[in-house]
Amino acid sequence: MKALYFDCSSGISGNMTIAALMELLDDTTYLENELKKINVPGYHLVIDKRNKNGIMATHVEVVIGHEHSHDHNHEHGHEHSHDHSHEHGHEHSHDHSHEHGHEHSHDHNHEHGHEHSHDHNHEHGHDQGHHHEHRNLTAINSLIDGSSLDNPTKDLAKRIFLRVARAESKVHGKPLEQVHFHEVGAIDSIIDIVATAILINKIAPDAIYASIVNDGHGFVKCAHGLMSVPVPATSEIFASSDVVCRQIDIDGELVTPTGAAIIAELASSFGVMPAMKVTKIGWGSGTKDLAIPNVLKVSMGQITKDKPKIAVMESNIDDTTGEIMGYTMERLFEAGALDVFFTPIFMKKNRPAYRLSVACQEESMAALKDIIFAETTTIGIRYRYEDRFVLDREIITKETSLGPVRLKVTQNRDIRDEYFEFEDLKRVAQENGMAIKDVIRILTKEFSK
Description:
The chain has 449 residues and is of the alpha+beta class.
């Protein structure tokens, strides 16, 4: 089966996720065409390559406004003056405050508002405050539902947004419907999450796994002072999910709330990469330069499913009548048992008894267990899991001189065998007033020609 493995050694953010998935898809036009299906004007994607500690990775930035705004980057001596428009700057928003002496509280204003947008805009001589729209979850869902994206993409995007919204609700101490928070309403967050849903549904993995999610430590500035890393929204997303996370010796934020919500929604487990034949790797670049490569690595490959195991349930019974045992067998088969059989045994005090054995798929165990307890006198059932070899097989119907007959066809390498379905032999024998052995002789002769 096709699987993805997210290596979050350097954390995860929305734009890092988009970049890594775009490398796996290797088709930038697909994403941009799909994004046109959602009514979010006033932005464009800037996609380039970045060298992160010797690793070339794709970097994606959601730029708000017109192309000319890039001139400000060079005037102010850094490449990403528009990073402030990201809900957390996608792991790069702290570059400004650390490298250029700017005190940007915008990185964590998802918790306290958006006062930063005006201060930062004034420093750079242009007003972008109108881009930071406030939306609640209902408005976001309406925007997504009103698009022409396919339903699986819509559903995935809404589930990711819901994780962020629940975390913001918990942090603010307000009911979900009363929370109006800047980040989920910001254009770049909408694009990050919707683009992730678009790419995941295009790649269509059968399973998604992730490493332990690393975040940094220390403090970051927010509108109301210093905030410890992981920030509250990220922490709440992790606490309400199955994410396994830890802090590493990197001063600063590595996981944004959007990134936390994405990996919490996508990954089914967190740990070392499962055995898989890797066919392609996508590298998504963050913007910070760290002591470790600031990249999200997403591996795509094939996982060979384990041989199917079956459950075998057994119980020794010495005080249930043969009629009831026979009826119990019928009920077990009707409820999905693969096989049911009785073995004569002797129990304590030399009592003749039967061992009831039931082979089944694991998902059928609960229903079969209830039948055994309800219909027999047993007070305990043992069970174990076993491997088995199963031949490829199919059921076909053939027309014969005695009427239609089903055959079970098995294939063992290049050896093909056909077996009559006994119920059909019984039916043909009764319809033609013949003995079953005569039916078998006639049909065998016809099929051997």
